[in-house]
Amino acid sequence: xxxxxxxxxxxxxxxxxxxxxxxxxxxxxxxxxxxxxxxxxxxxxxxxxxxxxxxxxxxxxxxxxxxxxxxxxxxxxxxxxxxxxxxxxxxxxxxxxxxxxxxxxxxxxxxxxxxxxxxx
Length: 120
Ligand SMILES: N=c1c2ncn([C@@H]3O[C@H](COP(=O)(O)OP(=O)(O)OP(=O)(O)O)[C@@H](O)[C@H]3O)c2ncn1[C@@H]1O[C@H](COP(=O)(O)O)[C@@H](O)[C@H]1O
Description:
120 residues; single chain; PRib-ATP_PPHydrolase-like; 6 helices; 74% helix; mainly alpha; ATP binding; Helix Hairpins; binds phosphoribosyl ATP
C-alpha cells in the first residue's frame, strides 16, 4: 500500500459534493437537455445512467491500474458525478446514501462479512 497524503480538507470535498448534488437537483427540475448533459442523461432514464456508471467505473479502474494520479482523480470525479446522476434518476435520496454510510461507521468490513447469514 502506498503512503500518500490522507484527505487533507474534508470540508472542501463536502462542499464540492454538496454543490454538485444541488446542481444535479436543479437540472432535474428545470434543466434543458440541449444545453445540459445532466438533463440529457436524466431524460434517458435510469438504464442510461446505469450504463454511464458502469462505463465510468471501468475507466476509473483502468486509471487506478496504470494511469497518473491526475487521471485517477479525474476519473473518480466522473464516477462520483455519474453516481449522483444515477441516484437522481432513480429518485434515491442522497440522505439514504448518507444513512447507509453512517450505519457502517465503526464496523469492520471483515466483521460485517463474517456476520452475514450462511458465512462460516
Ligand atoms: N461533473 C460533471 C461531469 N463530469 C462528467 N461530465 C460529462 O459527462 C459526459 C460523459 O463523459 P465522458 O468522459 O464519458 O465523455 P464522452 O466519452 O465524450 O461521452 P460518451 O460519448 O462516451 O457518452 C461528458 O459530456 C462530460 O462533460 C459532467 N457533466 C457535468 N458535471 C457537473 O454538472 C454540472 C452541470 O452540468 P450540465 O448539466 O451539463 O449543465 C457541471 O457544471 C459540473 O459541475
